Amino acid sequence: MSEKTIETSHGRIAVYDKPGGEIPLLMIHANSLCKETFHFQIEALAEKRRIIAVDLPGHGQSSDATDPLRTYNFNGYADAICEVIEALDVDRFAMLGHSLGGHVALELMRLLPEKIAGTMIFGTPPIPPGPEGAALGFVPNPEFGYTGKQTLTDREIDMIVALALGSDAVHDAFWKTAVRRTDGRSRELMIDAALSGKHPNQRTLVETSPVPLAIVNGADDPVINLDYIDSLTFANLWYRGAVRLENAGHGLHWQRHKEFNVLMDSFLTAVA
């Protein structure tokens, strides 16, 4: 990987930045994971377009947040990435966001609408703030509670990996290491902020934003309320609609990467 680090007011951000000829694609990973979850997408896009993949503060090779209360929420993560984009001098780009990364991407659509050519999110329900929004966008799942827990047991780490990437990923020690490395405060504070209503209304955003948006989810996602997503009205949804990829869960870019990459490439070609 073409690795570099960028100093921001939120901490040191690890970035994979590989040159390419077409519009850059910014990749933002899920809670407690890291940029390497996009291995199959980076491989598919090699030599085709510039790829920028970041480790969020408190994740992967980035430092922990200098001010956890400021950073560990949708808005704080988006602000940190704004600083990365400015440091990289990127004028226009597309985005790919998984789960938490999708929520961060939606905030970037709000902050930098003139810079964003299109956004593809998966495992991310665009929700109103507060517990009511969470109840709309997510289905009850006791294992989902571990994603907001500061300290995890080995069994709970396995459950988080299985939720995020599928049960097969649990056998890969790298992903367990990624979860262990994550600053546990980032999980706890992010969930607290979301349930306290400290992020803007993302349902209203997708109803009004002119930025092209693609939503792709696994048909068997164990935590996302897919019917809620189908009920939304979008200002500029991809012509394919809200896609459900069969035989895939929350980590469809990992579990069904070939099919996912076809959808991703089709959307990126359309917005380019």
UniProtKB/TrEMBL annotation:
UniProt-listed Pfam families: Abhydrolase_6
TM ranges: none
Domain AB hydrolase-1: 25-260
Record-given protein name: Alpha/beta hydrolase
Taxonomic source organism: Aliirhizobium smilacinae
InterPro entries reported in the protein's UniProt record: AB_hydrolase_1, AB_hydrolase_fold, AB_hydrolase_sf
Keyword Hydrolase: yes
Key words of the record: Hydrolase
Keyword Hydrolase: yes
Molecular function terms from GO: hydrolase activity
